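During the first year of the project, the team set up a workflow for recording each protein of interest as an amino acid sequence followed immediately by a discrete structure-token representation. This format lets reviewers and collaborators read both layers of information side by side without switching files. As required by the reporting guidelines, we include two representative entries from the current panel. The first entry is reproduced here exactly as it appears in our internal archive.
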Amino acid sequence: MERLAQQLADAAAVRYLGDPPLHESGVSRLLDHAEGSLMVWYQEHRRLTMIFVVRVQHWPVTTTP
């Protein structure tokens, strides 16, 4: 989970250059990312240059006959 969160934070830091205009909030809409059986919902905050993890869901591996 920590590795995935770091990847998202690194991507957000590269994507935004500079602060947003004053009339914009700087907070993204709800975003999601899935990798393997892990899914993360998050928001990016451009002014603080960070991400806020809203929810993490892990689906167990199931084996069906």
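The second entry, processed by the same pipeline in the following quarter, appears below.
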Amino acid sequence: MGIHYREDGREGETTRVHSCRICLKAFEKYHALGGHHTKPRKPKAEKEVQKHQCSMCHMEFDTGQGLGGHMRRH
């Protein structure tokens, strides 16, 4: 979260601006930025999940940790 200053349109006056580090949207009030951060984010498009496959029996696991536990059984 950054604090910046911008010209207010009135001669010589500036307004303090608080901006979101994620989307760079700017807010004049710090509490408005806080409210922005508490909003639920839209889910990102699902990316392809990498499968971890056992080289001995070809079972697939979602995590490397699951595969590691499985390998101890061989």
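For the second entry, the following points were noted during internal review. Strands lie at 2-7, 14-19, 26-27, 52-53, 60-61. Residues 2-38 form one domain. Both points are flagged for discussion at the upcoming steering committee meeting.
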